[in-house]
Design brief:
CATH class: Mainly Beta
Protein name: Short chain amide porin
Shape: globular
Signal peptide: 1-19
CATH superfamily: Porin
Order of helices and strands: HEEEEEEEEEEEEEEEEEEEEEEEEEE
Number of strands: 26
CATH topology: Porin
Radius of gyration: 23 Å
Helix content: under 10%
Largest sheet: 16 strands, antiparallel, barrel
Keywords: Signal
Number of domains: 1
């Protein structure tokens, strides 16, 4: 392991990159198509590799062997994004890649067992984003108001800043996942097909979209008492959804050419924003009581605040980053989703103890009808020397969840440090996270931990 990190550090320190915390990258992989650069194509590529040591939920096996812990290395994200403007009004965006490939799963559809097409091998590329955009009102012609319209598979999903987060510059090692409440059910990896409008009015940034959610068809379990009904994703003849996010930017104005919200600017901007958003979808879930089917709307609301400021003496190059968001989720009665990132565990049929309600591996209650409060904060430590000195940013996050389907609320935390070798373009992140383990809706038997080291390169 020490050899791996040494080699990685040497390679990363040799990179020439840019953006939050780095000055050498310039415009990156940008190819001008005319002399003044108003017509161009730009390419962005990034890899996020995870080394993990995880405590497994009770009732887990790995590779048909009972397991209480597991270690692995996996491809969290391998992505490629390209966008082009042939005029200031027209833009096309494409974004594709793979996610969540481990030694046991994440391979192409239909792969199983061992051999050339064994489980976890040869994952299939797919599009994350693919949209066209037209600027009706250009920002440089009217400094107070701008408006662009677009359509396709897009990321303008409203709700919160974190719902449209960039995966290139998280403060923590990753998103908490509940910021993408529809993930891989009625969306395609946090995206839907539809139309969107974006722009600014003074210091107010707005994003609105009208989308056709992907169809869902989970069959609800029939309950004999209405209080025990459980809503599941079943949209039938899917109706159009609406989403929006409004953010007032008190200090420096953030770019909105692309939808991806920055997680940490590392003191390169002075940002203080307050935002609020929503997502609604009619008749998007169903429940059953005594064989009578009821339809339920999805109504999601959020409010958040984001702060990123340089602090202290200028020569120390310190900065503080903070983000807090409150989610009010209504998917229908007792709706609950258990989610696990890159889960290498499966159900142990021979386990005789109290199993985790969430399931095997690192699964946990993640999304549901109820409330979630999430807060993260980090500080970029002082450095009076430019590269190759590593910049260090310790951080922490706290999550409170109160779901209707569970009798007890829960809390959990994340603690870690970013080691910036060249800003966000070359960094190593180490994080320890906890998660509660429910064995019944009214009993939390304790918590499990997961330690992750991520190696990220972004060009």
């Amino acid at each position: 392991m020490k050899k791996i990190f040494f080699i990685a550090a040497v390679l990363l320190l040799s990179l020439k990159s840019f953006s939050q915390g780095s000055t050498d990258y310039g415009s990156g992989m940008k190819f001008n198509l005319n002399e003044d650069g108003s017509k161009y194509m730009r390419f962005i590529a990034w890899n996020q590799i995870w080394f993990r040591s995880s405590q497994m939920n009770p009732g887990t096996m790995i590779g048909n062997e009972a397991a209480t812990t597991g270690t692995d290395i996996g491809n969290r994200r391998l992505r490629f994004l390209a966008y082009s403007q042939l005029s200031k009004r027209y833009m096309i965006v494409t974004h594709f890649g793979i996610n969540n490939q481990t030694f046991t799963n994440g391979g192409a559809a239909g792969t199983s067992g061992t051999g050339g097409y064994g489980a976890g091998k040869k994952p299939g590329l797919f599009f994350h984003d693919a949209w066209n955009e037209y600027a009706l009102v250009l920002p440089e012609k009217d400094k107070k108001f701008s408006l662009s319209l677009g359509g396709g598979l897009h990321y303008y999903m409203g709700l919160s800043r974190a719902t449209m987060a960039s995966t290139l510059n998280f403060l923590t090692i990753d998103a908490p996942i509940f910021n993408w409440p529809l993930i891989e059910n009625s969306d395609q990896f946090a995206r839907q097909m539809g139309l969107f409008a974006k722009g600014k009015y003074g210091k107010l940034e707005y994003r609105l979209s009208y989308n056709k959610p992907y169809a869902t068809n989970l069959v609800p379990t029939d309950a004999t008492v209405a209080d025990n009904a459980v809503a599941v994703d079943n949209s039938g003849n899917t109706k159009w959804s609406k989403a929006g996010y409004f953010e007032y930017q008190f200090l420096d104005q953030e770019a909105n050419l692309l939808p991806y919200k920055v997680g940490s600017y590392l003191g390169t901007k002075k940002v203080f924003n307050i935002g609020a958003g929503f997502y609604t979808a009619p008749d998007a879930t169903k429940s059953s009581v005594n064989s009578t089917i009821s339809k339920h709307n999805i109504n999601l609301f959020a409010a958040d605040v984001f702060l990123d400021l340089p602090i202290g003496k200028k020569e120390n190059k310190m900065a503080v980053t903070g983000y807090s968001v409150f989610y009010d989720y209504d998917f229908g009665p007792n709706y609950l989703r258990n989610v696990a990132i890159m889960n290498i565990g499966s159900v142990d049929p021979n386990f005789t103890g109290s199993r985790a309600l969430a399931g095997p591996g690192n699964a946990q209650a993640t999304i549901g009808s109820g409330n979630i409060w999430y807060t993260q904060a980090g500080i970029l430590l002082p450095s009076k020397v430019d590269k190759p000195k590593v910049r260090v940013q310790p951080f922490g996050a706290f999550t409170y969840k109160s779901f209707d389907a569970l009798d007890k609320s829960s809390t959990q935390f994340d603690l870690g440090t970013n080691f910036f070798l060249d800003g966000q373009h070359a960094k190593i992140t180490a994080q320890y996270s906890t998660r509660p383990v429910y064995t019944t809706p009214s009993n939390i038997s304790g918590s499990k931990g997961e330690f992750i080291v991520q190696l990220q390169i972004y060009l």
